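Hello Y.,

Per our agreement to keep a running log of every chain we model this quarter, I'm adding this entry. I've kept the format consistent with earlier entries: sequence first, then predicted structure.
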Amino acid sequence: MSNINIPVSMLNLAPIREGQGRKEAIDAMVDLAQTAEKLGYERYWIAEHHNTPTLVSSATAILIKHTLEHTNTIKVGSGGIMLPNHAPLVVAEQFGTMATIYPDRVDLGLGRAPGTDMKTANALRRSRNDSVYTFPEDVKALLHYFGSEEEQGFVKAYPGVGTNVPIYILGSSTDSAYLAASLGLPYVFASHFAPRFMEEAINIYRKNFQPSQYLDQPYMMVCLNVIAAETDEEAKWLSTTMQQFFLNVVRGTQNPLRPPVENIHELWNPMEEEMATSMSSVTLLGSKETVRQQLTRFQSIYNVDEIMAVSYIFDAEKQKRSYEILKEIVDEK
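Predicted structure for the entry above:
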């Protein structure tokens, strides 16, 4: 039985739009969080990326704190903290501190990718050992640090102990599905840029899920692109900003978020088009009616528990409207 009346959340990579500076990009990030809160979105997550001049999401914990300060009720979290770049104790102290100031409003999404190129990853790493392989142990360490006073060892996270900050495992491959299932944690799949293993990962997670003190049944979230507008034509036009964003990724270029273009085919060759399009293949795009049909079809196949939307739309007001349309769709009874 599919259900489209489900919680929706937002992911923000905090991109710099063409003609904007870094401070304006951070202000836009906060402004969108306030919109998310007003619209009744479940949570607002901020990504972690390094050495990327077109994104301002490198110091994720600081941006989360800044967003919490300027909102009142919405849950704010990381999508995600890239754990190989950080000592778990430091993460526990930072998120434990935020959870102490803003109780029940802080989420911790954890990923195992570096969120950057390998040279930058080496500059970020706390050790010369490849901390990607210690990801499962690091996740367990964090669960431990946020747990009760009785279960702590000699090293404790103050503040952090007893805060029970909710942890979400993020993934773009099947490895993380097994980990989230074995630990009994909620799982978030990155279909917004790496959709290839989505179906397989969802099935693995559900099939292997072990009930835990955190969850008694699987909780599956999928992050996908959403470009909703008044008409299909307008949505298609607005989506050329997203297409340029993914073309950036394919080419390894570093252009800010660009306005829509009339003819995207003038910008890319067939191979680039194929690569960029495959990255963004899980996208809800169109008018309210079209997006409703697409979401209904998606849910009839995957029946996920929560949708996390990311919208690369140049015009901030059109971006807010896109999120508003999505919320109207899931709120319809």
